[in-house]
């Protein structure tokens, strides 16, 4: 038998994105949006059936997010949203008068879910309309399906409310009864939280939940799907409950040593997290090692994390294309593996290409101690106290975006585009000089994206045409694919930064993306450990640092906003990760001379959770998000010994902060850090803002910094 745990839903050409945005902008009706949703679901079921998949999932579609859908299913809609015109999208995106619910990363993926708001007063009541409607809709098209729902333990753990387990199990039981009444044979309850470190009390909750749901008389058979890692201690707990099937991630996790008697194992041997073809020999060996009553071949997790199909990628080299598998191709692999398993046959396909040599990890990353560097930089840069700077990008104008699209389409000459980029740099530099900022940037007008731009200029990366994956809601990204050894054939950013520096007497900060972030926001290769790939990227960035320095840049920023993202889910594996991630960063930056000031920038990365690692980066100046996380960050960084710039301007909002407001934030910072170490900067890059917003806001930032400087004498 064969199945998949979930499927992409944004549409092969991002149809859902367009339908959502048109509805939100008032250009189409709710009904038109619903119709597009129905078309996408029908197309998915038809395709899965055509590919020969045995058991089809349903309820994997969502207009925004599956965790939000589960909150609605359980009636957990906070009161303030209930009277909104469209409560669902009000929770997801906010309205004029209402802030949206919080959003955060789904385990260690780049997908973001909406965090349900569950308090002691939340009343749970079942609203099973959506899964029931999808079951009926599929049936009308001739498909029996297995509805997929986020399971109670994961739902509550993500909501920080596991103490409400008793109360939530009632609606889950009602749901199972409703599905049984509908004639549904199987239901899938997703429990990825079971692959994280669980306390004994949390394991008790797993046992209680599935003993209770398993004991119901009128219910479909239950598949508890775990993914993103090994179940560890949760496996024997689940195995002892009456659930009929357990989904195991056999790409990241191990084949259980003990037999799972009486159970079906849904064996995830085709990775839902990468873009590579599965080695059929290894997959079959794992499938044959599983001891259970029945084995169903599956993906390691939902395929929502990979693009639709490689068929649309006609620009990729045939050799690379032959190694790739996106969602459709992975479904075909699952079907083929199920056939081979049933026939007891050997696979016909040979092994993949030989692995590349691992780089040496030992090259020492040595800069002088910070006080020595700080003195050299002070003499060289001559900056005032509380120096002002920005994070790198300036507003990306519509003209620039259009021009980039025209170059890609061959409608605009490369030279004309470059002239436009230069004009943008001139403008950004002029604006910064007029505002009186101390350390300038060139504004990153040449970059469509902080990772993709580097991917396009490094060997070993490929960029797709339609390889979109959902990041959140209507937001999609097109991660580059790392497919070979990474090398920098020629300088990437040097001419832009050097041009900006030629326009001003003030220091310009060269702007690079760090090795961990480049790899975290790409699809990684599968034939080399990730730390080796990061190490190769670090060496390429080090060459860029050296060339920027040689071109006369005295300040260089290497951004690592994704440092926290690759953090392993299990605590035991985290120290080793942080150690090599930090080592890679130092490898990228240690080539800099003492008098060159190295900056780094981190945002949405809960800086307080990885502060020791941030310290380990050994950057001369670190700028972090703080306008929104506020006090917590300041408490955490209190007494930090090198340059630090907690953001004083929240760039995620169009609002212009007043000089007084910025002054108050700075004063709070000066309570926990010595004035010699404090930098004044926004939370993040300015590329999503407009020039009028940016000029007004940065004007107030500079004013506030100047006022405080005076009081410091
Ligand atoms: C997500 S962090 C962004 C950093 C980048 N240098 C920018 O300013 O846009
Ligand atoms: Zn940022």
Automatic annotation (TrEMBL):
Q: List the GO molecular function terms.
A: 5-methyltetrahydropteroyltriglutamate-homocysteine S-methyltransferase activity
**Pathways involved:** Amino-acid biosynthesis; L-methionine biosynthesis via de novo pathway; L-methionine from L-homocysteine (MetE route): step 1/1
Cobalamin-independent methionine synthase MetE N-terminal domain boundaries: 2-292
Q: What residues does the Cobalamin-independent methionine synthase MetE C-terminal/archaeal domain cover?
A: 386-706
> What does the UniProt keyword field contain?
Amino-acid biosynthesis, Metal-binding, Methionine biosynthesis, Methyltransferase, Repeat, Transferase, Zinc
EC number from the UniProt entry: 2.1.1.14
UniProt GO BP = methylation
- Cited SUPFAM superfamilies: UROD/MetE-like
Q: Which InterPro entries match?
A: Cbl-indep_Met_Synth_N, Cobalamin-indep_Met_synthase, Met_Synth_C/arc, UROD/MetE-like_sf
Root EC class: transferase
Pfam families named among the record's database cross-references: Meth_synt_1, Meth_synt_2
What is stated as this protein's family in its record?
A: Belongs to the vitamin-B12 independent methionine synthase family.
Protein task: Catalyzes the transfer of a methyl group from 5-methyltetrahydrofolate to homocysteine resulting in methionine formation.
NCBIfam families assigned to the protein according to its UniProt record, in alphabetical order: PRK05222.1 (NF003556)
Question: What name does the UniProt record give this protein?
Answer: 5-methyltetrahydropteroyltriglutamate--homocysteine S-methyltransferase
Can you name the source organism?
A: Nonomuraea typhae
Taxonomic lineage from the root:
Bacteria, Bacillati, Actinomycetota, Actinomycetes, Streptosporangiales
Q: Which gene encodes it?
A: metE
């Amino acid at each position: 038998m064969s199945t998949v745990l979930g499927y992409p839903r944004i549409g092969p050409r991002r149809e859902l994105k367009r339908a959502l945005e048109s509805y939100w902008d008032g250009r189409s009706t709710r009904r038109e949006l619903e119709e597009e949703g129905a078309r996408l679901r029908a197309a998915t079921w038809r395709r899965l059936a055509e590919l020969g998949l045995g058991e089809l999932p349903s309820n994997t579609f969502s207009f925004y997010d599956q965790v939000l859908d589960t909150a609605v299913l359980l009636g957990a809609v906070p009161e303030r949203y209930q009277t909104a015109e469209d409560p669902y999208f009000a929770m997801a995106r906010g309205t004029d008068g209402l802030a949206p619910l919080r959003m955060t990363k789904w385990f260690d993926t780049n997908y973001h879910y909406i965090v349900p708001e569950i308090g002691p007063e939340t009343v749970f009541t079942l609203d099973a309309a959506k899964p029931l409607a999808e079951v009926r809709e599929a049936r009308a098209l001739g498909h029996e399906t297995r509805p997929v729902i986020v399971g109670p333990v994961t739902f509550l753990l993500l909501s920080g409310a596991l103490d409400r387990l008793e109360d939530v199990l009632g609606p889950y039981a009602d749901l199972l009864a409703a599905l049984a009444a509908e004639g549904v044979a199987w239901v899938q309850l997703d429990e990825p939280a079971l692959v994280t470190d669980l306390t004994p009390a949390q394991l008790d909750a797993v046992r209680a939940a599935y003993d209770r749901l398993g004991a119901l008389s009128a219910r479909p058979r239950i598949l508890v799907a775990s993914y993103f890692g090994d179940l560890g201690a949760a496996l024997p707990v689940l195995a002892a409950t009456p659930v009929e099937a357990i989904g195991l991630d056999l790409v990241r996790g191990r084949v259980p040593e003990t037999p799972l008697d009486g159970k079906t194992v849904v064996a995830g041997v085709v990775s839902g997290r990468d873009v590579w073809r599965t080695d059929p020999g290894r997959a079959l060996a794992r499938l044959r090692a599983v001891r259970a009553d029945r084995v169903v071949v599956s993906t390691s997790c939902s395929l929502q994390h990979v693009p639709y199909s490689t068929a649309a990628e006609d620009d990729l080299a045939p050799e690379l294309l032959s190694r790739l598998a996106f969602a459709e191709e992975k479904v075909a692999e699952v079907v083929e593996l199920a056939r081979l398993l049933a026939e007891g046959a050997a696979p016909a396909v040979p092994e993949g290409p030989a692995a590349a040599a691992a780089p040496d990890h030992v090259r020492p990353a040595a800069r002088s101690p910070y006080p020595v560097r700080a003195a050299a930089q002070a003499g060289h840069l001559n900056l005032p106290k509380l120096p002002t700077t920005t994070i790198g990008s300036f507003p990306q104008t519509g003209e620039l975006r259009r021009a980039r699209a025209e170059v890609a389409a061959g409608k605009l000459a490369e030279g004309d585009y470059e002239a436009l980029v230069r004009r943008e740099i001139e403008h950004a530099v002029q604006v910064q000089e007029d505002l009186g900022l101390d350390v300038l940037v060139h504004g990153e007008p040449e970059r469509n994206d902080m990772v993709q731009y580097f991917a396009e200029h490094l060997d070993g990366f490929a960029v797709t045409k339609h390889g979109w994956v959902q990041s959140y809601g209507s937001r999609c990204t097109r991660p580059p694919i790392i497919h070979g050894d990474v090398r920098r054939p020629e300088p990437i950013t040097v001419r832009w930064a050097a041009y900006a520096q030629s326009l001003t007497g003030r220091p310009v900060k060269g702007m690079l993306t760090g090795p961990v972030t480049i790899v975290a926001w790409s699809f990684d290769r599968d034939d080399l450990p990730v730390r080796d790939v990061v190490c190769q990227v670090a060496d390429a960035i080090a060459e860029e640092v050296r060339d920027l320095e040689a071109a006369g840049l005295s300040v260089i920023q290497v951004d690592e906003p994704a440092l926290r993202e690759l953090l392993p889910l299990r605590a035991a594996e985290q120290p080793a990760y942080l150690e090599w991630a930090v080592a890679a960063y130092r490898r990228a930056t240690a080539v800099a001379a003492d008098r060159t000031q190295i900056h780094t920038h981190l945002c949405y990365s809960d800086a307080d959770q990885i502060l020791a690692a941030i310290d380990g980066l050994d950057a001369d100046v670190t700028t972090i998000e703080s306008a929104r996380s506020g006090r917590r960050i300041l408490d955490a960084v209190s007494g930090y010994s090198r340059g630090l710039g907690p953001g004083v301007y929240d760039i995620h909002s169009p609002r212009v902060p007043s000089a007084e407001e910025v002054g108050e934030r700075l004063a709070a910072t000066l309570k926990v850090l010595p004035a010699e170490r404090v930098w004044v900067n926004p939370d993040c890059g300015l590329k999503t803002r407009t020039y009028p917003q940016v000029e007004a806001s940065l004007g107030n930032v500079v004013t506030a910094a100047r006022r405080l400087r005076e009081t410091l004498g």
